[in-house]
Amino acid sequence: MGNLITVVVDAMGGDNAPHEIIKGAVEAVKEKQNLKVLLVGQKEVVEKELSAYDYPKERIEVIHASEVIETGEPPVAAIKGKKDSSIVVGMKLVRKGEADAFVSAGSSGAILVGGTTIVGRIKGIERAPLAPMIPTKNGASLLIDCGANVDARSSHLVQFARMGSIYMEHVVGVKNPRVGIVNIGVEEEKGNALVKETYPLLKECKDINFIGSIEAREIPSGVADVIVTEAFVELFKTKNKQLQLEYANFTMPNKDLDFKLYPDIYCCGSDEIKSSKELILAGTIPSKENEVMVSDIGRKISA
Q1: Residue 224: left (phi > 0), alpha (psi -120 to 50), or beta?
Q2: How many C-beta neighbours within 10 Å does residue 100 have?
Q3: CA distance 92 to 31
Q4: Around Cβ 243, how many Cβ atoms within 10 Å?
Q5: Contact of 269 with 254, CB cutoff 8 Å
């Protein structure tokens, strides 16, 4: 066994914490022999949950943190005010060199603020982006930025493209990843001022495989491996989820169902809508609160 990689895991972060978080940590150390997990959270709660599992005791350690940052809390105030939260305590372990990485399913805003102010940015990085992997017809693509920066400059988008390319090539294993910028059309002259300013800069980057502009509706087909965006997030989320449902191509039952493939999309159930394709044609997305979103105008109406 090689050198251990130590990963801090926020045991209290996420809708199903700590149960699912601890379950995942146990599965991870069983699968990876060179992995050590530091579970940060309320010690009594975490240890009680851990007691249900058989695992290598020397590779899971519990670090006590008395506070929890909830999703609805203002991120900056939460990081400053809750010094003994699982996020703050965990990130300080990374800053002090006692861990190699930090993982959390908790408040993305708090993670972003903490990552910037506690762990710190890599030298030369102007803005920290959020970059999830999203499913496509041919696999997955990296969306960068997914909401961390709504006032980004062209230089930030170029950095996002570089970071995304490096990640896709060296972590995911995609050779010479294709980079596209989200736009209202594929023509170079289209777009807002930011896109028009960024487009030629990306074309000049020899270390980026820039394929030009892509429309949001093209994303699920996998036309780009790295999707660079800034202020299109809400529109993108709605349109993309609709198209993901269409590509998923599974039957919608009459009763309420949580989609397993995309857990943040919920089905209200209807005798009239039987399939995801019919749902797309109806131009609606069912929600957990029994509402229907009319995506073209972004307004919710009663189901």
Answers
A1: beta
A2: 15
A3: 27
A4: 18
A5: yes
Contact 112, 141 (CB under 8 A): no
- pLDDT for 57-88, tens place per residue? 999 999 999 999 998 899 999 999 999 999 99
* Residues 112, 130 contacting (CB under 8 angstroms): yes
Is the peptide bond between 18 and the residue preceding it cis, with omega within 30 degrees of 0?
Answer: yes
**Cβ count near 288 (within 10 Å):** 12
Contacts 24+ apart (CB under 8 A), 45-49: 45/11, 45/12, 45/18, 46/11, 46/18, 46/22, 49/18, 49/19, 49/22
- pTM of the shown model: 0.73
Structure tokens at 276: 């995801």
CA–CA distance, 254 with 89 (Å, rounded to integer): 46
pLDDT in tens, 216-238: 889 889 999 999 998 555 445 54
The C-alpha atoms of residue 26 and residue 28 are separated, in whole angstroms, by: 5
Judged on CB neighbours under 10 Å (0-12, 13-18, 19+), 242 is buried
